[in-house]
């Protein structure tokens, strides 16, 4: 989601890369042979050994976006409850697995031949009128790619845990996550899958990898173990979230809030705290050892590349962690 990532400087986009890369994989001319990653000692992303794409196998080492963010949502409804799109009880939902550059900036829609997002946001590769337009996908939603690959179990799991933010359909949201973000990993390029590549194989691989990271990050339970449960009567402090999650994850995550700014609320009148007041996102940051598909993340602090740790209000008791709407949670 572009809208939740305002804290990252738009100036950090790298427009010079797009002319070539927006229309093909990240490394044009890459052979589809000899990417047997188990024969290669895994190289840690963002380390000096990963910095030169011509010196490593880009299918086995993350050479493009090596700062990996496993992101989750806390929403209270979906807007499509009547169609069975509901939220999982006692769990935050999966947002995505994003490949930021090692310096904390990021790019998006890196391969327009794999553009399956019906609602591109932004609508150009750079987010400016000068960028390459990202055409809306008009085909069947990306979830339909999984049946022919024999992955209906994955699709069912995704419908349960990878639930879109309010008023988006899940399948549209997955297409957004794949095309905006997954195409910017060096290791999901189609050449990495060899000469017998099946159409959309890397889509399923990305979804599986993303699910694997998510499954190791039980945010709801980590909070609950510290007595932090959603409530529509109590308010919370930032430390109620930052403390337990940092302890459990092993590094400081980013905590995101939406909703009113604290000093625009009655409780915050006269305050200079302009942080938002409704907790709704957690971003866990990693470097990864070898390709992200190996699922070996090394937890790193969310400000490792200089970004902020939160946009939430920091006044004690300023935050809401709302209960889900009756009927939205199953
Ligand atoms: C961040 O890294 C990317 C990829 O190496 C580069 O294109 C971009 O210019 C860098 N941004 C800044 C602000 O240094
Ligand atoms: C793949 O590896 C084999 C065995 O080392 C080698 O003979 C061949 O040239 C390689 N092909 C490419 C495209 O790298
Ligand atoms: C992108 O969106 C902006 C704002 O809605 C609009 O003015 C512009 O024409 C769009 N550009 C493309 C390439 O669709
Ligand atoms: C809220 O705080 C910000 C920054 O401290 C300040 O610029 C803004 O004017 C304040 N807003 C209100 C409504 O007091
Ligand atoms: C709790 O409050 C949120 C935000 O106002 C609302 O969306 C939700 O429906 C409420 N949940 C319950 C169980 O009242």
TrEMBL record:
Protein name: ribonuclease T2
UniProt source species: Apiospora saccharicola
Family listed: Belongs to the RNase T2 family.
Pfam families: Ribonuclease_T2
Keywords: Endonuclease, Hydrolase, Nuclease, Signal
EC number(s) per entry: 4.6.1.19
InterPro entries for this protein: RNase_T2-like, RNase_T2-like_sf, RNase_T2_His_AS_1, RNase_T2_His_AS_2
Enzyme class: lyase
Annotated signal sequence range: 1-24
UniProt cross-references to Gene3D superfamilies, sorted A to Z: Ribonuclease T2-like (3.90.730.10)
